[in-house]
Amino acid sequence: MNQPDRESTDVDVVVVGGGPAGSTVASFVAKQGGRVLLLEKETFPRYQIGESLLPSTTQWICGLLGVADEVEAAGFQTKTGGTFLWGASPKPWSFTFATASHRGRHAFQVERMKFDKILLDNARRLGVDVREQCAVKDVVSDPDRVRGVTYTDAGGAEHTVTARFVVDASGNSSRIRRHVGGTRELAEYFRNIAVFGYFEGGKRMDPPLRGNILCAAFGGGWFWYIPLTDELTSVGAVVPADMVDKIQQDREAALTQFIGESPMISDFLTDARRVTEGPYGEVRVRKDYSYSNTRFWRPGMALVGDAACFVDPLFSTGVYLATYSGLLAARSINSVLAGQVEEQRAFAEAEFRHRREYNLYYEFLKAVYDTHQDETSYFWTAKKLTGGTASEADSFSYLTAGLGAGEYTPVDGGPGAPDAAARSRGRGPDEDAAMRAFWQGRTEEFTTEHHPDPNHLRLDDGNHQRLLRTIEEGWRARPDRLTVSGDSMYWQEPEPEPEPETAISAPAPGAG
Length: 512
What we know:
Layout: E1 11-16, H1 20-31, E2 36-40, H2 55-65, H3 68-72, E3 77-79, E4 81-85, E5 93-96, E6 107-109, H4 112-125, E7 129-132, E8 135-141, E9 146-152, E10 158-168, E11 184-186, E12 192-200, E13 213-218, E14 221-227, E15 232-240, H5 244-249, H6 251-260, H7 263-268, E16 273-274, E17 284-287, E18 291-293, E19 297-298, E20 301-303, E21 309-310, H8 318-337, H9 343-368, H10 375-386, H11 392-400, H12 419-424, H13 429-440, H14 461-476, E22 483-484, E23 491-492
Parallel strand pairs: 1-2, 1-10, 2-7, 4-13, 10-20
Antiparallel strand pairs: 3-6, 4-5, 8-9, 9-10, 11-18, 12-15, 12-16, 12-17, 13-14, 14-15, 18-21, 19-20, 22-23
Family: Belongs to the flavin-dependent halogenase family. Bacterial tryptophan halogenase subfamily.
Pfam family, one: Trp_halogenase
Region (Disordered): 409-431, 479-512
């Protein structure tokens, strides 16, 4: 593919965008000795939506990045699960990641200004050349591959930088994604629009649900209600796209009307006031939620995070898919730079896994949007999609925690598995340790009003191992598949499958 060598380029990788996707891929490449330039058009901290995170990001990926302790100590609101006023049930129902507040058993509701800066500052510490107030104008390419970018710095001067790879992590409004080819396809099923703002003084649910995200359906759509601090709450209404004209005429009036149509949200905001100053002072709008590019990469360039695809905000998968796709891209880049895997094969593996996650959550959300069903139906859908033998509630828990990829758990013996056994399945001791605490916390009761019996809903290691094997069997079916290195930073060839044992029959009576 006429790939440039290291000496002929200014850097190994240019990352466009400093959000979670960009800082993740930049950090993981820099950790392996790559020369990385990250260009961010704004100055951090800056506002961003997407505040409700999943354990797969805050524990496993942040653990690999080396910022899990910093995130834990940042004072973010602990999120132990979610509460839904949804479906046929007239009462709210809840799920939990675990019942005890212990590292690994929860996620966080974060102010993205603070969370994103933690990740970007960590990239700097790892050796990434981070340049803020630098806007990428175009990519440098020829018919064979992308070879760099042009950008304008804070003073208005224009620069060209050459690179072996360009990673577009510039979000849903990316101006350079078209250079990978293909088109952006909007998912008709999720053609929604969101109008949202921030309130002080809103009510909180009683412990242990106090930090939960609340998703409340109403006649015209559904609300998110995210407690960011003791006082600050993110509140947004997701409604059909045909409401766009009404919302654009007067965003605040539209949000106020939707709040009035939801008795639960109205009650929670009875004594609250909307924030009208500072970064949270606007009523904002986002539309065309669900989309996917038909291509995620071309030689020399890859899309990650929202530049590639986005599903829907209901189960808070945005930052998870951003950081996971950043890890996938970093594995591909690291493997190619090290001369271990050919470029096409490395990025095909990353795209396969990225699309699998997108499609998994797309189908899951499509089923959950059928509000004529109850939570039992949603649990069974999760079980069907994961394809495992775990209980329906366990399967729901895997997906809502961001564990659908099946990459995050200790294997061959459950939590604390021997390092050698973990490595034999493409896992390493660092990766195992990063998620060990998470799984030690998941044998607690998965609470919903519908299933109060903790024995019915216990997440035992055997169930999880069966689910993981089912997921891995799908990957094994691909003849050119790759597996993950022990430190999670590279692709590698899969271990040879053991030959089936051949039974030796006893000679027939009277035989020679």
